[in-house]
Automatic annotation (TrEMBL):
Disordered: annotated span: 1-26
Domain of life according to the entry: Eukaryota
GO CC annotation, single: RZZ complex
Protein's name according to its UniProt entry: Ribosome biogenesis protein ytm1
Biological process, per Gene Ontology: endoplasmic reticulum to Golgi vesicle-mediated transport; mitotic spindle assembly checkpoint signaling
PANTHER family recorded: CENTROMERE/KINETOCHORE PROTEIN ZW10, CENTROMERE_KINETOCHORE PROTEIN ZW10 HOMOLOG
Length: 429
């Protein structure tokens, strides 16, 4: 046996003894503690690589699942903290060794945590724990990004590449599961029917292969996972598009369209009679003028859809605490599209052309009430009250126009040389 081999064996034996006897470790000098730490880190590194290769290499047909490296790494980390708190700050060489040990240890800790998260994700998805799986995926992404360039010099690049590949696979698998859940929880049916229907399921009991989940997936679980993976925008865009074009716009054109909501224990449904343009209602619906009843009906029908969004599409979801960003994003997406349509279809036609039409401005009141409903439900913020601002601007424009017309008329009269003017007073003939 060579001298170096004997030395390494003695260090390994000392490290093992110190690991099993914390009191013995604390009695040793800083130099001895650092030597033991270096040996323990090498053991933890080897154990971590073995676990990574055993679990995650695709070509292995036999999984040799050994000891969880995270436990071993945690033990080493505790000892590192002890040395860090007791080492002499003036011992520069020892400080340099400790810094090197710390960098190596942090890299191994990240690898062990990534491995621990990755190996459980498949089971989490299978059991319906998509929120937990999403948290794991999010943490893995952060840990991989923290493996800085200097850390890559301290760990095996192949191990990092293997974990990165598995991370992408697990993320894709979870995304596919969330796509399936989204389609199951929000079903829109309009295949050639005269009725467009949305069915919102409050939970999903089984996966795509009809295998029951151990834990049924709730709407809140879906939103949590979408938020953690930063996928909610695309999903809410799809929902917003469906709501706009199949509910809000048809009801804006024809608020007399039938609208019904039904609820049972596990799901709720909203349906609308399909809008069909005809000679009598083709166009923007303003040829005969916008009436108070029309605006009031739009307010009432749209409010029904808004209540369905809040109470059913976000059923049992605490939007004020957990999923505010998703809810507000959907509300803002809807409002930024629909508000200009309200302005064009209902507000502009209500601007009085002359003093005789000034009474039509009372028809704007239901639109103000509708906007307030959006605000009450938290679908828009106080700085998004566009209807109120639009009405103020339109009326100010009307008043300014009337004022200009009046001033023009007065100026015209004053400038007229009227031959029939009679001078009163003065000397008689």
């Amino acid at each position: 046996m060579s001298r170096n081999s004997r030395r390494y064996r003695r260090e390994a034996e000392a490290a093992a003894a110190a690991a099993n006897d914390p009191a013995d470790f604390e009695k040793r000098s800083s130099e001895e503690q650092l030597t033991i730490l270096e040996a323990l880190i090498e053991e933890a590194r080897t154990l971590t690589y073995e676990a990574i290769n055993s679990h995650h290499r695709d070509f292995l047909s036999i999984r040799l699942h050994g000891q969880d490296p995270l436990d071993e790494v945690a033990t080493v980390n505790d000892k590192y903290g002890l040395v860090q708190s007791t080492i002499d700050p003036s011992a520069h060489k020892s400080i340099e060794r400790l810094d090197a040990v710390g960098r190596a240890l942090r890299a191994i800790v990240r690898l062990a945590k990534i491995h621990a998260n990755l190996k459980d994700i498949d089971d989490q998805i299978l059991h319906g724990d998509v929120a937990v799986a999403a948290s794991s995926i999010a943490e893995i992404g952060e840990l991989l990004s923290e493996l800085e360039d200097d850390s890559l010099l301290l760990v095996d690049a192949q191990a990092v590449d293997l974990l990165q590949m598995q991370y992408l696979k697990k993320r894709s698998a979870l995304k596919a599961e969330l796509d399936y859940l989204m389609a199951e929880m929000y079903q829109i049916n309009d295949a050639g029917s005269s009725v467009v229907e949305m069915v919102v399921s409050y939970c999903v009991m089984s996966n795509y292969d009809d295998v029951p989940y151990e834990n049924p997936v709730m709407l809140g679980d879906l939103f949590f996972a979408l938020t953690n993976l930063d996928l909610y925008r695309d999903k809410m865009d799809v929902l917003a598009d469906a709501l706009i074009h199949r509910w809000f716009i048809p009801l804006l054109r024809n608020p007399n369209e039938s609208l019904a909501v039904s609820k049972v224990k596990l799901f709720a449904t909203i349906n609308i009679g399909a809008y069909t343009a005809s000679a009598s209602n083709r166009g923007n619906g303003n040829e005969a003028g916008v009436t108070l009843s029309h605006c009031a009906l739009v307010r009432d029908k749209w409010s029904t859809v808004l209540d369905f969004i809040r109470d059913e599409m976000f059923h049992d979801v605490s939007i004020d605490e957990d999923h505010t960003v998703v809810y507000e994003y959907l509300g803002s997406k809807l409002w930024t599209t629909l508000c200009p349509l309200l302005h064009e279809s209902l507000l502009v036609p209500l601007v009085p052309a002359d003093i005789d039409d000034i009474g039509d401005t009372q028809h704007m009141v239901p639109l103000l009430e509708l906007e307030e409903r959006w605000l009450e439900l938290g679908l828009i913020a106080a700085d998004q009250l566009s209807i109120k601002d639009s009405i103020r601007a339109l009326l100010q424009t009307y008043v300014s126009k009337r004022r200009r017309d009046l001033l023009t008329t007065v100026a015209s009269i004053l400038a007229t040389d009227d031959a029939n003017t009679v001078v009163v007073g003065g000397d008689g003939p």
